[in-house]
């Protein structure tokens, strides 16, 4: 009895010793800062003097009077609504092609995956030049087809679609998740469907889509979370050399995180920036929970799994 | 069927026809993915006039390798390379150390509260970094750590939920009998972790190493907010500084910028080609069970 009692304490001690790096990090780098951030979001603070408590004023200003925040929210919504579904369709298409067991597909897999792991600043510079209205590759190709290409980053209307086009080039990670799911579908399912005389389309709708629906949900959630935090591309590609000019033209690429960055590190409104972070976090949380709830209607889990 | 996809039986001709369609689609999409890379390479070898030529000539009369020398001398690239290597190597070492310890605790030891704490650990993966960013910045500023590498390196001492999750999933597949046999032989937990679990977990360690390398090497936001002195910049930050410099001067030296971009991308591409399999396995573990 005493033996197993001390053994229990010892095991508990060992367990906590092993996870102590994460536990300390959780307290110091996550939980503590979250509480501090919640407090700061109720203050006005430039880091020079002490924070001044203003209550909910930051939030009422954000949601009521701050026109630029409203614009950044709509821009982010626009980007997510366009980039995420298109990214899902393109990466699923790529994965379906790679899932055909043709020789040489490894080479194509490498090619489709490569842009997603390369340096985003370098990729942004490359696309700035590809999308140059006059000398860029894309408008040059359009010109050969007799089409006058848009002004891309110089146009309020086309700046966000330009970022979406670029995001499709970097959709390789999503593709790999789909490919893994496709490869996990047991071949017997298709053989049974063949015996029933099912056509290719019917097999896709009744076997492939349900079987990859968990991967679809994963990619959807990760895509929305990632898309709503779009920053680097907009920061690097838009605006002139002057700090503060990012997010143009006329705020067309001012996304929430870019606005937060400007408030925190260009204007040093730390309290206000913290409240922006909380509003974004709340929206992401609501979107994620909503996805999970809706998922019960369309995600198919095999019996025995999860 | 022969490996070239052509069928020796007429009945199977339909299959090779489907191959043709698949290949046509792969070639079309493949070229859409490849062309930006080729264009970047081509522009980086043009001179200041030929890069604007309409129509664009893909293969320059004389490849201007001196553009690369110009890119290397426009900013202290060697210095940035060194800085990035120091940061990445430190983060890698600390991450592997902390994440394997934590993953070992979560996967192979039983103790009260373990499952709840692991759920909390997973949940923090969902938390956008911006929520904790401002208090952390303030705290690092108070500690006098701004404009040093400490805010970029020290957090990895505490592990990262995604890597902990990946490693735990892998550790769970290592038979527990090994641990039990070693315990009977009088080995302690640390010894089991070090001489049994870690050697068997090499593939998972390789995956984490790669993800961590790519993530740290390419990080932009961290260096952007924490590093002010130009000589302390990383490659990614330095490339953005070069961009501001070039565009700010009103010149249009895109051939130089493209050469610099190629140089910054090269380490990624090399690492990727060497270790593609680890990447793909890691994404699959994360995606299928996440």
Written account of the structure:
The complex is a heterodimer of chains A (306) and B (290). With 306 residues, chain A is mainly α. Chain A has two domains: 2-40, no CATH class; 66-298, Orthogonal Bundle (MetI-like fold). Chain A has 13 helices and two strands, in the order αββαααααααααααα. In chain A, a hairpin with a 7-residue loop joins strand 1 and strand 2. In chain A, helix 1 packs across helix 13, helix 4 crosses helix 8 and helix 12 (256-266) runs antiparallel to helix 13 (270-298). Chain B has 290 residues and is mainly α. Chain B folds into two domains: 10-64; 70-289, MetI-like fold. Chain B is 70% helix and 0% strand. Chain B has helices spanning 13-44, 66-74, 77-108, 114-123, 130-142, 150-153, 161-171, 176-184, 189-200, 202-218, 221-226, 235-248, 254-274, 276-289. Chain B is globular. Classes of the chains: A mainly alpha (306), B mainly alpha (290). Chains A and B meet through helix 1, helix 3, helix 4, helix 5 and helix 6 of A and helix 1, helix 3, helix 4, helix 5 and helix 10 of B.
Give the helices and strands, then pairings.
The complex is a heterodimer of chains A (306) and B (290).
Chain A lengths: L1 H39 L2 E2 L7 E2 L3 H9 L1 H33 L5 H13 L2 H11 L6 H8 L14 H11 L2 H12 L3 H9 L4 H28 L4 H6 L18 H11 L3 H29 L8
Helix pairs in contact in A: 1-13, 3-7, 3-8, 3-10, 4-8, 8-10, 10-13, 12-13
Chain B lengths: L12 H32 L21 H9 L2 H32 L5 H10 L6 H13 L7 H4 L7 H11 L4 H9 L4 H12 L1 H17 L2 H6 L8 H14 L5 H21 L1 H14 L1
Features:
heterodimer; A: 306 residues; mainly alpha; MetI-like fold; 2 domains; two-stranded antiparallel sheet; 2 strands; 1% strand; B: 290 residues; 14 helices; globular; disordered N terminus
């Amino acid at each position: 009895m005493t033996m197993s009692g001390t053994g229990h304490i010892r095991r508990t001690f060992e367990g906590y010793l092993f996870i102590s790096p994460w536990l300390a990090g959780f307290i110091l780098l996550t939980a503590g800062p979250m509480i501090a951030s919640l407090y700061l979001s109720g203050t006005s603070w430039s880091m020079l003097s002490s924070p001044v408590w203003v209550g909910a004023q930051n939030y009422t200003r954000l949601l009521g009077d701050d026109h630029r925040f409203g614009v950044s929210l709509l821009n982010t919504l626009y980007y997510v609504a366009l980039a995420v579904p298109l990214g899902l369709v393109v990466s699923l298409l790529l994965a379906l092609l790679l899932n055909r067991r043709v020789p040489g597909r490894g080479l194509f897999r490498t090619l489709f995956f490569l842009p997603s792991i390369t340096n985003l600043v370098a990729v942004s510079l490359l696309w700035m030049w590809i999308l140059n209205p006059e000398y860029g590759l894309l408008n040059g190709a359009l010109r050969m087809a007799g089409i006058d290409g848009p002004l891309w980053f110089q146009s309020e209307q086309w700046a966000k679609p330009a970022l979406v086009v670029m995001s499709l080039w970097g959709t390789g990670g999503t593709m790999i998740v789909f490919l893994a799911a496709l490869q996990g579908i047991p071949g017997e399912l298709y053989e049974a469907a063949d015996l029933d005389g099912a056509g290719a389309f019917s097999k896709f709708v009744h076997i492939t889509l349900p079987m990859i629906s968990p991967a679809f949900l994963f990619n959807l959630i990760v895509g929305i979370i990632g898309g709503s935090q779009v920053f680097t591309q907009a920061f690097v590609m838009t605006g002139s050399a002057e700090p503060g000019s990012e997010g143009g033209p006329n705020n067309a690429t001012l996304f929430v995180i870019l606005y937060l960055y400007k408030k925190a590190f260009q204007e040093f409104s730390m309290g206000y920036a913290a409240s922006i972070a909380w509003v974004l976090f709340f929206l992401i949380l609501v979107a994620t929970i909503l996805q999970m709830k809706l998922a019960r209607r369309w995600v198919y889990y095999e019996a025995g799994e999860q | 069927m022969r490996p070239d996809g052509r069928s020796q039986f007429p009945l199977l001709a339909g299959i090779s026809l489907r191959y043709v369609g698949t290949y046509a689609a792969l070639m079309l999409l493949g070229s859409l993915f490849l062309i930006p890379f080729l264009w970047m390479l081509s522009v980086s070898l043009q001179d200041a006039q030929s890069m604007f030529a309409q129509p664009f000539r893909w293969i320059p009369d004389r490849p201007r390798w001196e553009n690369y020398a110009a890119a290397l001398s426009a900013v202290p690239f060697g210095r940035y390379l060194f800085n990035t290597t120091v940061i990445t190597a430190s983060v890698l070492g600390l991450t592997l150390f902390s994440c394997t310890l934590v993953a070992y605790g979560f996967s192979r030891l039983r103790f009260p509260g373990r499952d709840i704490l692991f759920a909390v650990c997973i949940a923090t993966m969902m938390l956008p970094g911006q929520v904790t960013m401002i208090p952390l910045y303030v705290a690092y500023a108070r500690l006098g750590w701004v404009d040093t590498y400490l805010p970029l390196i020290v957090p990895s001492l505490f592990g990262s939920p995604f890597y902990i999750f990946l490693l735990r999933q892998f550790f769970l597949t290592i038979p527990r009998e090994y641990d039990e046999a070693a315990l009977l032989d009088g080995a302690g937990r640390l010894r089991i972790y070090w001489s049994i679990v870690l050697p068997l977990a090499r593939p998972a360690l390789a995956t984490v190493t790669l993800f961590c390398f790519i993530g740290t090497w390419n990080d932009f936001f961290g260096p952007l907010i924490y590093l002010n002195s130009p000589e302390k910049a990383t490659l990614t930050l330095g490339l953005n500084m070069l961009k501001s410099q070039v565009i700010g001067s009103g010149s249009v030296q895109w051939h130089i910028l493209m050469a610099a971009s190629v140089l910054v991308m090269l380490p990624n591409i090399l690492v990727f080609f060497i270790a593609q399999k680890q990447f793909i396995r890691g994404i699959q573990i994360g995606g299928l069970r996440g």
